[in-house]
User: Fold this.
Amino acid sequence: MKLPTISFCLISKNEEKNIKECIEKVKPAVDEIIVLDTGSTDNTVKIAEELGAKIGHFDWDDDFSEARNTAIEMATKDWILFLDCDERLEAEDLALLKKTIANYGEEYVAVQQPINSITDDGGITSYRVTLFKRDPRIRYRGRVHETVSDSINEFKDVLVRIVGGRVAEKVIYGDDWVTTGAGNDLQKAAQLAREMVIEQGMGKKLRDQVFHEDEQRNMDYSNEQASFA
Assistant:
């Protein structure tokens, strides 16, 4: 049986402190590394190139989904593994992911994992699709709070396989804001969310959708996990 191949994708901006470890953790288990850089002025691109990554460049336009989808277009393998530069996937979790898609790859199109966000106060766990088939139907949506789950959920004949494992995300406290994710753009993401509310003119309804969709998504994922058990 031919084992499925994996493209590991990242979007980056000024992540020289994070990208080396992130790639090194995953590199032994993947077949291709894609780094789409959105304008780094540090050594991010150089480090990624030295680690064997295929580099793309993207003019940032305040749309996280567009950046992620551009990285996906660069990929050539069977499955896409997408993390942020400040996230770490441990060896045992990589083995579990590979075993899952080898055993259930015909049945499922995506793998959802618990994400453990580590903070000074301890941490919180949420759920996110980290691994999915390279399929033109599966794309990220949303300028902020981007997710592939919405595109996956449109297909009634596919399911998300939820497995155990850990993806550790380091939350860094800056001088004026909490930073996390590709490019440390959390403050920018919050501003974009506010702009979406203003642009759409939908008041509280859209505001609740923008700012609380993660909480609702986690509840939905918990229910899905119970139904798949």
